[in-house]
Amino acid sequence: MAVGTGVRRGAGLLATVLSWIGRLIVAILVVHIVLTLLDANPANALTMLVADLATYFNLGLDNLFLPAEPKLAVTLNYGTAAIIWLIITAVVVRLVRRIG
After folding, report:
1. Where are the beta strands (DSSP E) in the chain?
2. For residue 33, how many other CB atoms are within 10 A of its CB?
3. How far apart (Å, rounded) are the C-alpha atoms in residues 43 and 15?
4. Which of 14, 64, 85, 86 has its CA 20 to 30 A from that of 24?
């Protein structure tokens, strides 16, 4: 196996892993939005876990939009963070694939 082939395989594997991590982060943000819109029990362990993870991954955008309706605020703020994570993931994966 040539060195270039190994590097390409490694870069491809890294790009795949990074893509899945980005998708998981976006999924957490979207699940948090859905749980909020459906009035999930905030004392439930799963709801608290998703909310904590979403707060960690929201890129500090939890107060970007401040509408009067709390559900709309969560949808706008966390939805914006999800879109930004999709863009970040796509750019990073493309760069890793190009380097490899």
Report:
1. none
2. 21
3. 37
4. 64
